[in-house]
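New to this. Please check both lines:
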Amino acid sequence: MQALLQRVRHARVVVEGHTVGEIGAGLLVLLCAEQGDTEFQADKLLAKLLKLRIFSDAQGKMNLSVQDLDGAGTPGGLLVVSQFTLAADTSGGNRPSFKGAAVPEEGRRLYDYFVAQARQFHAEVQTGVFAADMQVELVNDGPVTVPLRVAPVAAG
């Protein structure tokens, strides 16, 4: 499972002209479930992103997580958007292959699981709409963009 995190001042997702998810300062989380991923990968990825210290403290040093964004324990928002194209393989030519992405039913199940877990452990969680044609608007803060990946457990 992988995610592309963007530290944002604000972000929103629009579907068919309607805002379906919106946050102020926090993280835009572009999330991709890959073949072989399970709840284990989702839990591990969520734990990492909630504790990742990529927000600036009073001295301007990246020392705060999204859970303590303002330094006083007030969390920032999470805007979680499904993004199967993160699984793109461009090694075979000019058209990306997405064969590494989870099949849509499994991708939706893991996306829904990730969002439900995020809502258990974080105060503000907004989402896009799985498999919808979405327009994502954001103001990247920094800019700071961080890839995270949790590989599936090898069968053995």
User: Anything to note?
Assistant: The longest strand covers residues 135-149. The chain has two helices and eight strands. The two ends are 19 Å apart (CA to CA). The longest helix spans residues 104-121.
